[in-house]
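Input chain follows. Return structure tokens only.
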Amino acid sequence: MNHILITALLAACYSGEQNFGDSKPSDSTSGGDGRIEVYPADGVACDEITDDASVTCGFRVSSVGEYDLRVISMQIINAGENAGQPVFDNLRPADDSLNFPISIVSGESAEFILRAAMSETGSATGSIELLTNDGSVNDPSPGKIRVPVSASANIRNGSDTGAGGEGDDTGASTDTGESGGGSGSTDPSDTPVGDTGA
């Protein structure tokens, strides 16, 4: 009799332990994993930068699966370089009311933006990493996807440094007011947006 009672108790504990150890997010267990689609599919190409200024670049994240997509966090993991300074920074949702983690309903999308700033003519590349509840992506690990970013600059105002008369270009930089001009800024790759979930 005692043997039967002990066997029944062990069986109950074993079945309870399986559910207790489930570490999937609650939205995955109640429905399923989301599916992500990023546009542009081949990466973010910023508009050309001119006159030592900056541009705002954007991309769209869409929920294309049966279940809602959760964007848990995103960060710039390669900020590029131009004149010894990082090029890409200020990554954030285009809608200031959104906070991470962001849930995107199936069939809907969300826009994200970042800034690119260069003070010398040239080109730069970088990358953004998103952490999501999409188990089908694995770049470089499950749920993560990397998006390449590129920018180019054709700086016209830095080449004429002559003393010249009125109206001559002295090579002074133009501040667009979008940032502090890059001085004293920290490397944006060290600052993830949202909860990295790691």
